[in-house]
Every structure is written in C-alpha cells, then in structure tokens.
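Quick board copy: two proteins, each given as sequence then tokens.
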Amino acid sequence: MTRTNLQGLIFSATLLAASHAQAAVQTINFDNDASGNPISAPSLFSGATALTNLYADIGVNFSALSRTQETSTRIRDGIEVTQAYNVINPAATGMGAILDESSNFGSNAKSGDNFLAFNRLSSSSANLWRVSFDNPIGYFGISYSAGSASTTYQYLNFQAYDADGRLIGVSNYNYLGYTDANNTYYSSRFFDKAFRSETGISYIDIGQGLNCCSNNLDASFSSGNWSVKFDDLIFGEFSDAPTYLYNLSGNNGGYVPVPASIWMMLSGLMVILGCGRKQPNHSL
C-alpha cells in the first residue's frame, strides 16, 4: 500500500469515526416527534396534552413531580422528637406541554416554532418535573427562558441522579431572567445549560419558579407568577461532551465509582507490599 493510499484510508476512518460520534448526540427540538414527524402544537394549554412518552422510542420520558412534607420520630438525648422533611414524589398532573410560539409567552422558540412550556397560571404546570433516560447518559444540555408572565428573581435547579437514585451532582440558582444597568428586567432571553458526568445519569429533576437559594427539596416556591419554556434538549455519552463543560460528578461533591480494574491493581499492590514486608525472626 502506498503512503498516499494509507493517508487516504486514515482520513476516511477519521471521518467515519467523527460521523459516528456526531450521530451519538441526539436533540429533542419539540418541533418533531421521535420518528421525525412534524408536531402541530396548539398555542394554549387548554388545547394541549401533557408531554409524557412522546419520545419514548428514543428512550426519553417526561413526568411531573410533587413535593410533600412527611414526618419521622426519633429519640434524641432521651426525648422523643418529631422532625418534618420534604419528599419528592411522582405527580398525576402538572407536566408541561408542547406549545406553538404564537402562545404569547413573550418570545419566540429558540429553534423552529415549538417549545416545551410551563406556566404557574395553568393547572397543567408544576414547579418540578423530571426527564428520564432508559439508557444512562453522560452529556446533557437544554435551553430555557422565562415567559412574559414571570416576575423577577426566580430560579431553575437541575439535579442529576444515577440508576440507583443517588444524587450525582447539581446545578442550582440558574436565574430565569436578567436586569440591565437601568434595573429593567428582561425575561425573553434564552439561556443555555449543559453539563457532563462520568457517572451515568438516569434522570434529571428540574425545579422552576423557585426562590433562591437551595435545592429542589428545600427551596421555597416563588409567590409571584412564573412561566418558563425549554427548547433544544440534547443528550449523549460523556465522550460526546465538550471537555470544557462542567463535570457534575467530578466537581460538585458527587461520587465517581472506582473501576474494577483499579480495585484489582490496588489489591495486587497490597499483596506485593505484604509479601515484601520483613518477617519477624522467631529463631532468636
């Protein structure tokens, strides 16, 4: 094989590998269903259906959550103490819906004509929702923007969990709008949130319309009106993510499992160290 042919083969293999890597990243733009068919979305919640399993064929499902308070009793210093705590559970209603940008949310969709919408003024919208993945992912991104019904100082919280329901990491206090030098509040701008995780992400809980500053379990809900829209949800493997992205599992107190090969290597080192240790001389 000539050098020129070899270079051509390497170049072709590189392109093929790049195309496969690119294909691994999937995008939900809410303009098409899982099969690529265009979605004709309504402009009002009254004509919409909650988004649940529309994208189940590509392994993605959506659901609403509710936060309820429960109590537990324990003995502290010999005294029985009752403690209240919050629990997040699945909710029967409240998952947002895909709407057309003519719904007067205050701005257009980021791409196409549709977006995933929530509005506190509608019974179809909850403060908390979940996006679940049949196959754990390592790369997640989404664009979001407050709507025209929002008041100031409301936040989004993203919390990622593994297949066993253990918290991997969080991205909290994401502001739903911005204020300029004249103290004028703007809510129409789209913000982008993306992160990666070496620990596989099975689901992400998203809180919205929250007061600053805590996680989804403890943050109080905003008393004012809020509306928020999401567009262009992307997901893929950890290797698909840009290297500069925030690593939830590496930087936010999450755990990173030690690979089995590392455990084997450590075990081998322990054996070697044990064998090399000087044995006591019992003949003295």
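And the next:
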Amino acid sequence: MSHIELIVNVEPKEQGSDVLIAELSENGFESFVENDTGFSAYISKDIFDESVVKELFSNYASVFNVHFTIKTIEQQNWNKEWESSFSPIEVDGKCIIRAPFHEAQKGFVYDIIIEPKMSFGTGHHNTTQLMIQKLMKLDVPGKSLLDMGCGTGVLAILAAMMKATAVTAIDTDEWSYENTIENINKNTVSHVDVYKGDVKLLAGKIFHIILANINKNVLLADMAEYHRALEKGGDLILSGFFETDISELQKQAEKLGMRLAESAVSSQWAMLHFIKNK
C-alpha cells in the first residue's frame, strides 16, 4: 500500500510541531519523524484528504508560519525508522520508560517497557512527563483509576505498578487501543481493562482517580462526564494543553464543583490537578 509523506516546515518549530502533530494524529496520520525545521507525517494514500490538511493548517495561520509539501511513497517500515531514534526517558529519578530493545537499568522504582508504535505517551512529550510526575505523588494503592486517552497505556501501566486495584484505559484510536494491550502484556501488569471508545463508556462507572492527557477542546467537552464519574474527594489530573488555556479549564472545573489543588508547567505545556468537592 502506498503512503503519503506530508513534509511540514513550521515556525516556531517546537510549539508548532507539538500542536500540529497532535492535530494530524486525530485525522488519520499514523507516524511522525521530527527534523530541524518541522516534521514529516505519514498516512495511507487511500485515506489522505489534502483539503482536510489545508483547513487544519489554516486554523493556525495566525499562530504558526506553516509550509508543506506532499510526496507519494511506497510502503516502508515507518515504525522501524522511528524506533532508531527512540531513547529511554527518565522521570524524577524514579521512573524509566524504555523500548524492548533497550538494556534494563538498575535504580528505578518503576521500569516501564513501551513498544514504540507511534501512539502518544512514550514519555518524550512534556505533557506525559507532567502526568507521570503528578501520578507518582498521588496516593494510588487500593484506588480505582481511569486513563482517558491512554495512547501507549504508559499511565495505566504505571498506576498498576503503583498498586491501583482496578485500572481502566480508554482511547478512541484503534492503534492506541492495540498498542496499550501490547504494552500491558510486555509489562506483565494485571487488573488493567482496555477499551476502544470515548467518554460514553464512562456511563455508570465511578473512579477514585481520573487521568486525561488530551487536547483542550476534548477536555472542555467531556469534563462534566469526568466530574460525574469521579468519586467525591477524588482526583482529576488534566494535561495536553498550553499554559494559556489554564484559566478556561479551571473556570469549567470550578463551575462543576471541583477545586484546583496544583498546577505545573513545562515548556508552555500545563498540568492541572483538581479535587472533587465533598
């Protein structure tokens, strides 16, 4: 099967690449390789729609300077190419996230193996690291936990390693759903249930902790359901948005009856920790 290579040059490069890669991943693009001026994105030729890309980029015309070219290429092992640049990630000296082809390292409380299959949540992104840092500070043992928008399943796996009694991982993306199951098996953690779907799957469910590392628009749209599915006094941890979005998300959460317990920022990306009022 032929693929389309979308070669994107964007300024500012770091922030622009993060945002546009996240947007393209929600529109069928399955893998990404960053470079000095932006990134290349790959999608099957039979589902590629140039008009979708043009519209997406036009939405950010006032924020980023974006130029792109399109190239048709034959089937290749994109995952193998990306694996060659995948390096282990260490978080706060306690957690290491590595691929199966990396040597195990001593001295870490949590050693997580992630098969790099282009799903989000390998640990390289600031938002994933913010979520991991916060999760390691929470009282997790004996709690039920939801990883919403699980990506690779790294947060669900860490929660299971931290002795959460019941972990649920949900993602709308088929690739992420399958990758999460694969990574759970590689880490031999139990009591993690994985589902493909959206916030509708939360009907009738209650959790002590909810993690959601998703873009701002989804968080705003689904926050009421997160609130409903959260135990009184429970923790809601959000990331996947910029520091400039904090006030809007905080206002929505407080309107629902949650209070802000902590916030953190890394390279303009933010994390918010809310507690549901008793």
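Board note added afterward: Residues 255 and 271 are 19 Å apart (CA to CA).
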